[in-house]
Amino acid sequence: MKLILLGAPGAGKGTVAKLLTEVDGSVQISTGDILRGAVQAGTELGKQADAFMKAGDLVPDDLIMGIMEARLQEPDCENGFLLDGFPRTIPQAEALKGLLDKIGVKLDMAVNLDVPRDVILDRLTTRRTCSNSDCQAIYNVKSNPPKQEGICDKCGSPVIQRDDETEEAISKRLETYNEKTAPLVSFYEKEGLLTKVNATSSDVVVKSISEKIGI
Ligand code: AMP
Fold this sequence. Notes:
The protein has 215 residues and is α/β, with parallel strands linked by helices.
């Protein structure tokens, strides 16, 4: 499947994408994971992105498009991809449309994960993430803690609270979402690609998407 997952930070895009990869082998492409990996590795991209991310701001569109132009043309994308956290602005959505036309790829749909604001806030403050950039498994101290406190079940690395999950950065990220990313819902509605799902339970979302795609 070739999907865009839309939704506010904390709506469950990463969790749903990881579950969907198990349905048909499509790859998850998370710009947030790629950027966090680059910051940790200290690459040029990481150095340019770091301050924007810590402040809860978006990384400039040209940096993101540079990453995605290359990533979407890698061979593993031929079987399908789940875009998690991209596009995040109208210019990114326009550029993605041009890129997909150029490489002859058609999207199945853009799914908007709709979650009430109080649930989002609660999830973001209780979310924990594996610090290993190749893993980045997602946990929640209340609903899905690691078996051993602070240690990732999958790879054994420390599980941490992200730098951008302080209260201040969270409120900035939600503001940025409302201003820059929420308009993508109408963009994809006009493109005839939008599907909305009530996303309080990730398992229900995965079932509903699989049914809509017919797998
Ligand atoms: P996420 O893990 O998707 O919440 O992303 C974490 C941070 O990475 C965001 O708050 C942004 O600073 C940056 N980021 C991720 N994806 C994008 C994107 N498509 N455009 C701009 N910045 C992004």
